[in-house]
């Protein structure tokens, strides 16, 4: 039997010997490729090579990899097919070899034949090859490939392939070329050429060889100067062929998962059927096993269940798995997390407990509504053969049912779902939700364009009031121009004072607490004293603005040093909040930061601050921008952008930013980190203070440390000092606890000795009258040595008083004292009840040691 490990090693070993560099699987989250939700083929990480773009693999001429891939969501989506057959998967592995301007068709075909036939010992009589030849296409037939295959296969096994099946294109433009597929006939001994590419389950594609020799442009197709090879093998499929089984699910990748599922639910064993009485349960096996693998891989690469993008695809997969486990297979809640952990082990993936908890949280979250949602669905299905889009949306919005899960339930009940209406309902709900969040005030009939360029230029301008609205005691005013900064890009909105004048006389003052952009209108929000008028004088709070500037430039410096310090992590900004004297920064990171790392980052930040570096802002064209400038890959930028540059002697820190900043870093004064926590899986949050707030925090910490105070609640102080104070507090608590424990142990020991003495004396008083007596007490707080001493003491008392008896104890359980009128064969009977024993003679006692299960026993018997 071929194992998955053997096949991986055979493939990579074969191509390593032939000069290929073995490339590790990239993440299932594509790097710098917004066109894909997930990595869906081995080619993805080499796309830049094929496009001729410089990248980390630019020097590689021959490559080989076993790439982890997910096809669930987006253009390539196998999610709906999993379970229905024995070969679809949402997660799979793709083996492949590549040539970037090195070898071409002949070598690619030779390698494929040699590996399959001579290394894996697959019968060549069962193999068929295709080549591109489509009369309906204007692309020339690939007769060269046909000729090359004729060296190994009879012409009856070389099949023409259409443009759809045998011509590969990256997109509407770019590299492209013919491909040649190798197909395997599971049955053999027949002419199966007519079954190639007909979705016959017994004639399946094994290997696809893509010959990239053309470049398609808007004007036509030209030959590439440097052609390339891109190949791909379905790992699970080839493994099934090597093991002579008709299903991808009957290999060591899935069978252990099936065994685990079966034992969890006391189910019938997996029969690998797609029809008949076992089909439903078998489909459940396949769905649950497949989805557990996909969940494990997603978690490994930092994807967590959420309501957006990849996270929502994972949430859908989790919920399908939960429904399958509980509804189809009747398993109890909690099985999914354990199954994901087992799947991870099979795949060689290590998942921390904190990561796995995301599965249990998702299972618990959906489990609370699953049963109620199923009840509602059954009522809806009983009404007719179509589930309305509105009802499907209720299931989605109220009970957490993804649309595809509702479609599965509908299909099982011979019903359909009105998907168009569902999408309309969802979009309507989103619009209402957005408006509810963004409309605290009534709005003008059409958006008012406010000239806000003054927010960067000056404080104190005259403006004209164009619109006002009231809500819950607050007034929101919109002007023709403003110097106030509205909340944007993580920076809070300005506060300040707006004075209204009528004929030169002050008639009212608006104390602005916040500035917000609402539906395209810049609202200045606050409490009004007096009344408004058309003429107004706008002045923002410059002291508060200066503190905000310090925090905003501080965020840029923090982000820079996180990237430069945590070199083992891919640090990306996940969110920020910039306030007066305080900043919050969320970033991607798989672990907590150590105290020394925080100390190092703080030291570097404050060194830069002290160097009094210049901070410049330049407005530049986004197109052609220096790639070293930090930007948010998920954000769309206008034609012209603001590039904020910190001119440090060692480097230039550059970020695209629309916020306000200091002119020199020395204005920041200090930056101190006060907390570093996790906000979600693989996302950390740093909160820091700047300027006066940071200085006050340092002073609080210094005072506490000098006073040696570690008691009571800690004020807001820097995290490094906080951890030192907490260490002192913990050390004191530990010392106190150890002292208390020692005292308690001594008290318990004395108490146990007293209890033993009193109970023994009581037994002595009536021992001769009672044929058998037993008592027990907790001996967990005394040592084995103490127990044995006490048993020996009891035996001495028995002997002195002429009592025939046995003292018997389980050391790690409790102590039992047994009295009997006749000892006789008691020792032998006790020995017969023990798993292992050893007997020795001490004075007039038989001393027997033994074990029962995992418990160690000690027995002393008198009267030889």
TrEMBL record:
The keyword Metal-binding applies. Keywords: Aminoacyl-tRNA synthetase, ATP-binding, Ligase, Metal-binding, Nucleotide-binding, Protein biosynthesis, RNA-binding, tRNA-binding, Zinc. GO terms for molecular function: alanine-tRNA ligase activity; aminoacyl-tRNA deacylase activity; ATP binding; tRNA binding; zinc ion binding. GO terms for cellular component: mitochondrion. It holds the Pfam family tRNA-synt_2c. GO terms for biological process: alanyl-tRNA aminoacylation. Its cofactor is Zn(2+). Binds 1 zinc ion per subunit. Residues 2-700 form the Alanyl-transfer RNA synthetases family profile domain. CDD domains: AlaRS_core (cd00673). InterPro entries: aa-tRNA-synth_II/BPL/LPL, Ala-tRNA-lgiase_IIc, Ala-tRNA-ligase_IIc_anticod-bd, Ala-tRNA-synth_IIc_core, Ala-tRNA-synth_IIc_N, Ala-tRNA_ligase, Ala_tRNA_ligase_euk/bac, Thr/Ala-tRNA-synth_IIc_edit. It catalyses: tRNA(Ala) + L-alanine + ATP = L-alanyl-tRNA(Ala) + AMP + diphosphate. Zn(2+) binds at residues 552, 556, 657, 661. Its EC number is 6.1.1.7. It is an enzyme of class 6 (ligase). Catalyzes the attachment of alanine to tRNA(Ala) in a two-step reaction: alanine is first activated by ATP to form Ala-AMP and then transferred to the acceptor end of tRNA(Ala). Also edits incorrectly charged tRNA(Ala) via its editing domain. Consists of three domains; the N-terminal catalytic domain, the editing domain and the C-terminal C-Ala domain. The editing domain removes incorrectly charged amino acids, while the C-Ala domain, along with tRNA(Ala), serves as a bridge to cooperatively bring together the editing and aminoacylation centers thus stimulating deacylation of misacylated tRNAs. PANTHER family: ALANINE--TRNA LIGASE, CYTOPLASMIC, ALANYL-TRNA SYNTHETASE. Belongs to the class-II aminoacyl-tRNA synthetase family. Alax-L subfamily. Monomer. This is Alanine--tRNA ligase. It comes from Menopon gallinae.
